[in-house]
Structures are given as structure tokens and as C-alpha cells.
């Protein structure tokens, strides 16, 4: 019997079953229910009112975190299908995730994103900087293993393998921060008196997918690996931003990340083109005539004509073709420093396709994400999050919903209390956070009938 089949029941184990000593169920049932649990969770539904790039009031057409996550799941399934197609006779086939499993991982990957995207993430990290910090990926794990509604204490409680799949940066936040002496000093600065004078660029969180509060669940997930593999998988090395960072990802995570990158670099490009934020001339100069694309010409000018056509069907055809080119280039590599197949096997795109995808991601970042109009909305969201946190911290009894206040007062430490506030705000949609801000701070807005 293959190692994958022998271990299958260990990977389908849920944390609740582990604590209670219960047997795991078969993979087909478990991974199907993993996907169902994510889809039916409140955190997943809230993604429909959280921005991907553009504001929610811009148009009904543009992507939200929900539609983005659905696209990532669809691309993830396509990548797995392609790996099956090209992998006849290969040993890695025994370790590929099922369609249910990869979709569960892809659908869950953004659950922890707060309102206002990375702007809200930085704002919450600033407010939590001395109390365990905030990071969107770590918040995802917290929802899956603690906050979600499927179990009393263990959250959505996905299988061990699905939980491993969402760990983009298998490190604990506190341990990463402890290695950055400059940031340690910076953390001790007094709270800003006026948030509008605060340089938010100094408060980007480190890449760490685990809060200290979820350390036990993290260790349970890694319990299937040898000590050597665990040590290497969680090893931290310095990056160019001052924080240390993990170097490796599990097999399923590599597939999810490729799907995420394709959705970001190509589907988000579609939104920018549809809004008229990217011109044909700009595309020609910075993509088609870029030395990287000249070295790796994946398509001809017919693609550009379709992408910038006045017909939405032509644009959609071009986007679909680009995605297909990326998906069809996937192959399985091996990193022989690891013993376990789920760490050793690594999904990758072809050299040309990866080079062009990185070019597209950079293009979207420079000409869409960092536009003053977009950054201005992000800044506005940051101020909303900062002011809400400050007010809720100062007046929890008056301003928090009763169930949240109960959690707040039952926490035995200041860190625990502030984590309750962070969880509450992180779970808000853009719309809810804006409405609460107006209720609290705009004299002409708000009513006793506006339920919090």
C-alpha cells in the first residue's frame, strides 16, 4: 500500500477528533465537508462585502474578496486536473489533493482579511503591535481553528491537511517579531495622538501565519512530519524588510498560491482594463514591449486587441486564454531536502509562464494597487479601523455588542481583551465598519434602531 493511503486517515483528522480520541473518517467525506464548512461559514459570506481592489460602490461588476476566492478555487482545481493529466505513472499522483480539498483550501485562503484589505490589516497590526499583532493569514488560521461557528472551541475545524494548506508562512508571529530588534524598539513608541500623522508604512506586519494563541493547533498540524522536516519547514531567515521569513510551503499551498497569483495578475487586470484604468498604450509599452515579455512571448498582438476590445466578450476570451496558458504550464518539482512527500513535492509553473505572471502582477501593482485614487481609499479605511479600535477599547461596555463584551470581560489579560476587539473589527465588512463609524462619529447619522 502506498504511504499516502496508509497516512490518509491521519491527514483527514480534525482537531476536535484528535482532542477527543475519535477515529477519522474517509477522505472523500472529510474533504467534501471541509469545502462545505468554508462555503457556509459567516466569514466566507462576509467576503462579498470586502474589497479586492476597488470600492464596493464602484460597480456591481468588479471583484470582491468573495468572487476572487471563488476564482482562485476554480483555478486551483484546474491546476490539479492538469497535474493529473501530465502525471501519468508519476508517484506524486498519490499525494495530489482532491478537487474538494484544493477548493476548500483556496476558498478559505482569504477568510482572515479584515475590512479595507491590506490597509485594514496594517491598522489592526498597529493597534495590536504590543499584544501579539495582526496578520491576515494568521487571522485565517484563527477563524479555522478557534472563531468559526462549527464547534464550540475549535472553529470551523477543518481536517489536518486542509489546515496545513492555508499555512502560507508556517511561523508564529511573536517569534518572528522577536528577531527584529529595530521593530522591537519601534513597538514601544507611544500611541499616536492623531492617527492622521501616523506613518502607516512602518507598521506592515511580518509574514507569519500563526498567532501564539493558536500554537497548539499549529503543532498538531505539523505532528505528521519528522523533527527534521518540522525544523526545516519552520526555519526563519532574514528578508529584505528586516523581518525573518519562512522559506518553504507545503504541496497544497504551492498550488493554492499559484492559483491566487494567476487570479491576482490576470483576473484583477481585467477589472483595471474594464474600468479604463489601464490603456492599450500603457499595456503595449510596459508588458508587450517589456524585455521580460520579449524573452518569453506567450501570446501575440491579437491578445492585446481582444483584451482592449470594446466588446466585453472579446476581453473575457483574452483573459480566459491567458489563464489557460498559465494553468497548462504547471509541473511537479521535488525539493529533496524534505523527507515527507507533502513537503517534498512542489507545484511550479513553466519558466516563461512564471516570468510573465510576475510581470503581470507587477504591472497590476504599479498601475492599479498603488494609484493615489486606490491608496486614498485604503488610507480612509485605515483611519476608520484605527478610530473604531481606539473607541471600542476606551468604551467597551457602551459600544460593544453584548456577546462580544462578554468575551471581552471574560478575558483574563489585556492581550486577550484586545484580541477580542481585533477579532471583532477584523470580522467586519467594509459596509459594516463604515456604518458603525458614521453611527459613532457623524452627528447626523445613527439611530437606536441601527443594531450593532
UniProtKB/TrEMBL annotation:
Organismal lineage: Bacteria, Pseudomonadati, Pseudomonadota, Gammaproteobacteria, Thiotrichales
Similarity comment: Belongs to the dGTPase family. Type 2 subfamily.
Pfam families associated with the record: HD_assoc (PF13286)
Hydrolase is among the record's keywords: yes
Keyword set, alphabetical order: Hydrolase
Transmembrane segments: none
One GO BP: dGTP catabolic process
Organism in which the protein naturally occurs: Hydrogenovibrio crunogenus
GO MF annotation terms: dGTPase activity
UniProt name for this protein: Deoxyguanosinetriphosphate triphosphohydrolase-like protein
InterPro entries: dGTPase, dGTPase-like, dNTPase_2, HD/PDEase_dom, HD_domain, PHydrolase_assoc_dom
HD domain: residues covered: 65-265
